[in-house]
Amino acid sequence: MGTTARVRAPELRGRQWLNTGGRNLTLQDLRGKIVIADFWTFCCINCLHVLDELRPLEEKYGDVLVVIGVHSPKFEHEKDPDALAAAVERYGVHHPVLDDPEMDMWQQYAARAWPTLSVIDPEGYVVATMAGEGHAEGLARLIDELIATHEAKGTLHRGDGPYVPPPAPETALRFPGKAAQLPNGNLLVSDSARHSLVEVAPDGETPVRRIGSGERGRADGPAAAATFSEPQGVCLLPTHVAEVAGYDLVVADTVNHLLRGVRLESGEVVTVAGSGRQWRAEVDDHAHDALAVDLSSPWDLAWYDDKLIIAMAGIHQLWWFDPIKRTAGMYAGTTVEALRDGPLAEAWMAQPSGLSVSADGTRLWIADSETSAVRYIENGVLGTAVGQGLFDFGHVDGPAESALLQHPLGVCALPDGSVLIADTYNGAVRRFDPDSNQVSTVADGLAEPSDLVLTPAGEVLVVESAAHRLTRLAPGALSAAGASTVDGPRHRTERKPTDVSAGEVTLDIVFTPAPGQKLDETYGPSTRLVVSASPPELLVEGAGTGTELSRRLVLNGEVTAGVLQVTAQAATCDADVEHAACHLTRQDWGVPVRVVDGAVTRIPLVLRGLDA
Prior knowledge:
This protein has 4 domains: 168 residues, Glutaredoxin (3-Layer(aba) Sandwich), CATH 3.40.30.10; 162 residues, 6 Propeller (Neuraminidase), CATH 2.120.10.30; 159 residues, Neuraminidase (6 Propeller), CATH 2.120.10.30; 116 residues, Immunoglobulin-like, CATH 2.60.40. The chain is built from 5 helices and 45 strands. The strands form 9 sheets. Strands 1, 2, 3, 4, 5, 6, 7, 37, 40, 42 and 45 form an 11-stranded mixed β-sheet that branches. Strands 36, 38, 39, 41, 43 and 44 form a 6-stranded mixed β-sheet that branches. A 5-stranded antiparallel β-sheet has the order 16-20-19-18-17, with no helix packed on it. The protein is globular and about 70 Å long. The protein starts with 6 loop residues before the first strand and ends with a strand.
């Protein structure tokens, strides 16, 4: 495993433990097991991808492997212990979770990005660190190596792990995500934590039928047998399109990385887009066979510009899908996670999670959750109505340029041209009025609202996700008199900045191929590095895209602080194996820096490293 000095894993300490039956775990309790400490935060789509990647490993190596989720929050709302407990259930986290609200463990394990994985061997030493997603194959090989080594040494202890499931809850819905009005007046709700769709009566409460068995899976078929995995957005197709396509609405089957079609009369489910593999490829502007293309956590859907637009939260883009031609492709965004307006092919987004089309069809509203922003597309250009960027959030009304949201997941265009916002982590419904350029609060005290539905009668229903229900807004809430102005707290994500010198600085991405893998240049250069800065003036030289994982940067001494935005990827293939599988490892970092005379001149970021 190398010749560098071994590093003892820091002791696990936090505010509380979840999924342990009330027991506080220590590293001594885990001695003899292989431990993966997964540093995550529940807003982060890449972290959710890793949860899904770890599930098969937890099942395969259940008697030797213990995954510990270390929850190190980005947003203020994520520091709430009740919100964390809800998220652990919502996302099916079936391993112990340590609540790390002050990010002490994050600092001690030197994490710099969400997600980060630290692998601890049965003797309590950190043997690998990796950032980002796509590490399942490499982890399996590493676990096999550790099993062989520690069985030979007698230091591996097989047996059950410390996970204790919480009591099963009983509610009609469980973490509903999105909803849509059906032609018959009923509502169709994605019952995300129960992996199904529920049709409810116009009262928003009375269940009419369930589509999906309720088990996690990806099977097509009749309503009672079909399966989903944490579905989110639902969108009715225009009648003329549905007649040709053979189904009436499309569902964003988020964790399966699929789009599913549903025939309303029978409830039959069919896969209409997505291979089921998660997208890890190059950005292109081609049309692809819809069933062959890889998607990444589709979160919401809307019919706009004569096509179905997909909020592709997993790669910070919008995609399009044509149900008649059965093709799909990229619509907006570059996959860089940040806030930048402009032509669709050049704009940056961060986990778009909600879509709604204006009454006249000219504007597509977007809830861009990780930048706590409301964005819009009009005439082929992406703009920002409300929001400052990845690190600024809060609950502040007033002029749009200074207003703040906190991780909104839904938007709903109103007939007067304004837009309602499901301001999820503020527990509020907000309204942006383009005519006055003002943001106001329509309702608050809600439990993680994630979507909004405007009924034909003009009523507004809120998908109150963490309360497991649909809630009807008071009739006067949408009038000017019904809105209020909140001047609440302003927050900025305060991750400890790295002090760097002005002038020349070397950015190094540390990447070691997983055991049994080698860098692969079958489809071009095996590595790619994209660097930019906020503000742009921070970087005198070094911005742009290249193939080397080391980059000479020149920092502007007149800019005292900023954020380096770094995206790195590495393509690998299995070595010396017939029918070798290929893998793409990718990670985005936002690295806060402070420019200080005499500080460091090298910034190392670990994409994947052994013998940490």
